[in-house]
Amino acid sequence: MKVNFRHHGNFNNLERFLVKAVRIRPVVRRILEKYGEKGVQALREATPKDSGETAKSWSYEIVEGENQWSIVWKNSNIHDGYSVALMLQYGHGTGTGGYVEGIDFINPAIRGIFNQMAEDAWREVTS
Fold first, then answer.
1. pTM reported for the whole predicted model
2. pLDDT tens for each residue of 27-70
3. What contacts 78, CB < 8 A, 6 or more positions away?
4. Which residues 6+ apart lie within 8 Å of 45 measured at CB?
């Protein structure tokens, strides 16, 4: 099979786009790292404290996929195989048959971080 290709003009627009795309990657990573840390701090401050173990167990991870980036906030305080942070957030049963109602502390703590991150990323991408 033979394929012929003719082109008139140049690829300047494509080249500019590719150069900008390569430069944007470290910028996006820097923004995500900044807001990953801010999110950890906001979650630490908002986490209900008894022993303080859950509050100090927050961390984050940046996950890069094909054409997408994500920040994953994690809490490493696990009790009997369950995340203590999620038990605080959504509630949980007790060993004596009772129920402890959850407290929505994660969503309010992280909402402002999402808004700031979106504004910052948009400013960087459009500049």
1. 0.75
2. 788 889 999 999 999 999 999 988 899 999 999 999 988 778 89
3. 84
4. 55, 109
Q: Which residues in 89-109 are b (16+ Cβ under 10 Å) and which e?
A: beebeeeeeeeeeeeebbeeb
Supply the pLDDT for residue 51. 87
10 in Cβ contact with 88 (< 8 Å): no
Token pair recorded at residue 90: 């959504």
User: Which is it for the CA torsion 25, 121, 37, 64, positive or negative?
Assistant: negative
Higher-pLDDT residue of 93 and 127 is 93
* Contact (Cβ atoms closer than 8 angstroms) between residue 45 and residue 24: no
Residue scoring higher pLDDT (27 or 24): 27
Instruction: Tally Cβ neighbours within 10 Å of residue 20.
Output: 10
Q: Is residue 103 within 8 Å of 89, Cβ to Cβ?
A: yes
Choose among 13, 73, 11, 72: nearest CA to 42: 73
Q: Residue 107's pLDDT band (boundaries 50, 70, 90)?
A: very high
